[in-house]
Amino acid sequence: MKTTVADASQFGAQVERVGAGTKASHQLHIPFREAFWVAIAAGLGYAFDAYAVNLLGLLAPHIASDLHVTIKTIGLIGSIFLVGYTIGTIGFGILADRIGRRDALGWSIILYGITTALGGMTTNVLAFTGLRFLTGIGGAGELAVGAPYTAEMWPAKVRALGTGGVMFSLYSLGYIVAGLAALIIVPRFGWQATFIFAIVPALLVFVLRRWIQESVRYKHAKEELEKRSLEEKGRPRLSIWKIPGATRRIVIGWMIYTANACGYWGITVFLTVFMVQKFHVTPIHAIFYAIMFYVVQFFLSYVGTGLSDLMGRRPAGILGAVIMIVCTILASTAHSLNMFLVFGGIMVGMLGWLWAVSDTYMSEFFHTTQRGTGFGIMVGGGRLASIFAPFAVGAGITAFGPTIPFLATAGLWILTIIGYLMGPETAGRELEEVQLGG
């Protein structure tokens, strides 16, 4: 099946094939409007994923009280949620390569929207835990599908700003909305109402996603794969593990995302608990401060991705990891609330920088036909390690107080530095120039 400009235009793009030695490359001219709306649609789903997944940490004291459990048990529920998050990350990455980016995102948001809402309708510990597990499976699809989808649509020179900047800034916005819901809705209607509310934005984003275009690269890659399958008489596609150089890239992804996921969940699940226990602020003030931290994160996600487009993914990622280590040490050992607010705000903000850059970086590693699968395996590996982070930090706070568990997370970012040192530079290059497989 020959791909033509006419075929491509119905998907909002023009395709130009340019010979590059013995290997053909694709230069896709996708209208910015199409790319922008894909980033917004993916990012809004990621925002409400942030809303759904962070409610547990924000409302931990309220939930623990109503469910008659300890903070340690809340940490265990958080870890079980991350089991679902790991399964969903890998599963939805594979699904995106099988049924398409747009449809996979649709299933993702419906699943986590419904299960989050149902979680607000029960005070049974087992039922609540099971629903959080299912929320994790559904919510994981937002990143596993959304980042590769957006990367395939945005131009090389500003790919990080679209894939990481827009998407992760909206994730930060989702946390801010969750925090505001905790401050406004909880005092009036209880914590359950904040969970039930999640179904409304989930349905709205689902409708928006039916309107955006499928990834142009995915459409053409699927056509080429079907053609190749016919020519090779149904020969199965090559396993991602058998692609030369793939194992190295997957290991790099595991290192970067182990730091990302363990660092994020180790810090954020107990962020308000840390402030309440160490500085004796009220839960309401702790939530307000957390919201301010995520405002910082909103902007730093653009700083990190902007730098990665200008100077490269590797130097931007390494610089972010160094800043994160320093600020985590200073925030964890702070003896005054004001000092913690300064360095804690930068610490939480740098999570946006690090995640946003790496979301883009991992989306550039593999061919379109296996981009979702590869991204899911890499991020899923990091999330597998992070399953134990909430439980470990929760147990550590119970045994040693809040300082030591938070301080320990500073060491995680050494993995990030090693990962970027081992990896290739991908900034400013077309996906077809840097991807493996095909």
Topology:
Elements (H helix, E strand, L loop, with lengths): L4 H5 L4 E7 L2 E7 L2 H27 L1 H8 L3 H29 L1 H19 L5 H29 L5 H31 L1 H6 L2 H11 L6 H16 L14 H23 L2 H9 L3 H29 L1 H20 L4 H27 L7 H16 L1 H13 L2 H6 L4 H10 L8 H4 L4
Provide structural commentary.
The protein is mostly helical. It has one domain (5-434): Growth Hormone, Chain: A (Up-down Bundle). The chain has 20 helices and two strands. It has a two-stranded antiparallel sheet. Strand 1 (14-20) and strand 2 form a beta hairpin. Helix 12 crosses helix 13 and helix 14 (313-332) runs antiparallel to helix 19 (413-422). Residues 1-26 have low confidence and may be disordered.
Determine the CATH topology: Growth Hormone, Chain: A
Number of DSSP strands? 2
Instruction: Give helix % range.
Output: over 70%
- The CATH C-level name is Mainly Alpha
CATH superfamily: MFS general substrate transporter like domains
Low-pLDDT stretches are 1-26
Q: Describe the sheet with the most strands.
A: 2 strands, antiparallel
Q: State the strand order across the main sheet.
A: 1-2
In short:
By secondary structure, this protein is mainly alpha-helical. Helix content is 77%, strand content 3%.
Record keyword descriptors for this entry.
438 residues, mainly alpha, Growth Hormone, Chain: A, two-stranded antiparallel sheet, 77% helix, disordered N terminus
